[in-house]
Structure formats: C-alpha cells, structure tokens
User: What shape does this take?
Amino acid sequence: MLVFASAPQLIAPFSESDAADPLRADRVATDLAESTFVDTPSSTQINTTAATAFFDEPDDVHTTVGLDTRTPLNISVVSTESGEPLSSNGVEYTFGEPVPERAGQVSVTQRVLQVDDESYWLSVRVW
Assistant: This one.
C-alpha cells in the first residue's frame, strides 16, 4: 500500500505571492525622504538637484532603493494641493509602472516633503 500526501503550506512561506509588501514600501519611502532627497535626515526640504538626478536615471532606481529589478515599483512626488507631479529642469518626479487595478495587492507608503513653502506627497507603491 502506497500513501501519497501533499502539504503545500510547508513550502508556502518560501514561495513568492501576490500579496502586497508594506515593509518594502515603507523602507524605500523612509530612505528617500530621510536620505536620498534631503540634505539631512531631519529636513523635509527636497534637494531638487539630488531628486532630479534620481528621477533622471530610471535604469538606476531599483539599485538605488535596494530592490530587485523584478519588483514592481511606482514612486512619485506630487503636490498636496493639485495632485500634479513635481518637476525640475524638465524632469518629472515620477517613476515606475502603472499601479494595478487590484489595489488590495499594492502597498502604499507616503511622506510629506517640501519645496520652498509648498508641500508634496512622496508616494511609494510596491506590489
């Protein structure tokens, strides 16, 4: 007599899933808001030179934020009032793929940054 049983839950913790990943989104947003886009961690003023350089090199974004290039990612800096993307020297502060329609599968983390006296949302979406 031969008995065969399957236990997919035994390997489930080690397999990839479609679930959203809030830790990755939060880590990326924190790094950008406290390091990459600002001069000091306590500042909320965007260093437009650094931010423009970041968004002007889309091939380097995944490497800069420490994610595998296979990780779907969307980063934007938009006005808290109008929702329009921030831009400088002809570079729009947006990167990534369109956000999927199934919003439950997307992790979003936001931070508030400033340019002069205007506030902007830094939004990081990972799925």
User: Anything to note?
Assistant: Confidence is low (pLDDT under 50) at residues 9-15. The first strand starts at residue 73 and ends at 79.
